Amino acid sequence: MNDEIRIAVLGVGKMGSFHVESLTRRTRGARVTVVSDVSDEQAHRVGDPIGARVVADPAEAIAADDVDAVVIATPGSAHEAQVLACLEAGKPVLCEKPLTTEAATAAAVYRRETELGRRLIQVGFMRRFDREYAALQQMIAGGDLGAPLMLHCAHRNPAVPEFFDSEFMIRDSVVHEADSARFLLGEEIAAVSVVRGRPTAEAPAGVSDPMLVLFEAESGALVTIEIFVRTGIAYEVRTEIVAERGSALIGLDQNVVTKRAGGTWGGTITPDFVARFGQAYDDQMQRWVDAARAGIASGGDAVDGPGSWDGYAAAAICEAGVAAVVKGERIETGMEDRS
Ligand SMILES: NC(=O)c1ccc[n+]([C@@H]2O[C@H](COP(=O)([O-])OP(=O)(O)OC[C@H]3O[C@@H](n4cnc5c(N)ncnc54)[C@H](O)[C@@H]3O)[C@@H](O)[C@H]2O)c1
């Protein structure tokens, strides 16, 4: 192996091209040698300027001799086959969320990795690398606040495409809260309920936007999530922990605060998720590259962050969340035993 590990990036749309840029400009110890996308034009647009080979077939890209590790940023429906191919090739993989689109297939991926005896799968739950989330997790785990009782989360997007219906809001947006809640509370989620509220006039017919989602953790701690994806304002992700001996809040957009003539003051709200979590995506990439290099050199684990179990847990929570939306009932996640 050269000093730098050689990466194939599968799917170079919005997220994949961001990862290519991160790997090329801001990450040490890795370079992109191969890109693969169902759109040949898109693959060349991203791959040509950095001298990466374009390989049409993702399976061929994974198996290629000039590829040591893989970043998957294709749509969720393609992840299962591509992650399994990485496992069979023995190559570390950073897979964008979701790990797979169903809990059963995600569990099967976790079991396959366990059988192989080597952790090769990292899942792109980048909030764990955000400085505020990491600090909040450490504060909770440190015990100063006492036992966590409630977590209040708000997840607001300015606008989304028409296809973002109530179920997709759970799978695509609340999935981040599923992982954040497990990360912050340090325990599994046992049940999910959803209350559909009055929809904004911006929501297509039949779509409940916003909704209130409730997770019940195994300890009984509660997680409330306001999911609202058509605010028309900006990107707002806030989390407040309420514990026995205090509370703590992150996501306040503490940018420059201005004071103006006329007696008003204000600041700016982060416009989108790349602006809000740019540092987290880049830190996730650097930590994964470092872990992948170490794993390739040692033949051992190649993960520094959420893994296949976390991908499975998020899939199980989202599956319960979708059932809760459809049936209007409290749904237990029924997660498998980890052992
Ligand atoms: N972590 C995050 O915050 C975050 C944010 C956005 C998206 N994502 C995830 O990243 C992934 C990609 O999302 P996106 O917004 O970049 O989508 P996108 O549509 O912008 O890009 C997907 C790309 O994959 C290509 N593609 C489709 N099927 C393929 C296949 N089978 N093999 C190879 N290429 C294929 C498409 O042509 C496209 O260029 C999704 O899993 C999504 O959930 C994560």
TrEMBL record:
Residues 5-124 form the Gfo/Idh/MocA-like oxidoreductase N-terminal domain. It holds the Pfam family GFO_IDH_MocA. Its EC number is 1.1.1.18. InterPro entries: Gfo-Idh-MocA_inositol_DH, Gfo/Idh/MocA-like_OxRdtase_N, GFO_IDH_MocA-like_dom, MI/DCI_dehydrogenase, NAD(P)-bd_dom_sf. Keywords: NAD, Oxidoreductase. Gene3D superfamilies: Dihydrodipicolinate Reductase, domain 2, NAD(P)-binding Rossmann-like Domain. The keyword Cell wall biogenesis/degradation does not apply. It comes from the Bacteria. The keyword Oxidoreductase applies. Residues 133-248 form the GFO/IDH/MocA-like oxidoreductase domain. It catalyses: myo-inositol + NAD(+) = scyllo-inosose + NADH + H(+). It is an enzyme of class 1 (oxidoreductase). Belongs to the Gfo/Idh/MocA family. Homotetramer. Involved in the oxidation of myo-inositol (MI) to 2-keto-myo-inositol (2KMI or 2-inosose). This is Inositol 2-dehydrogenase. It comes from Actinomycetospora lemnae.
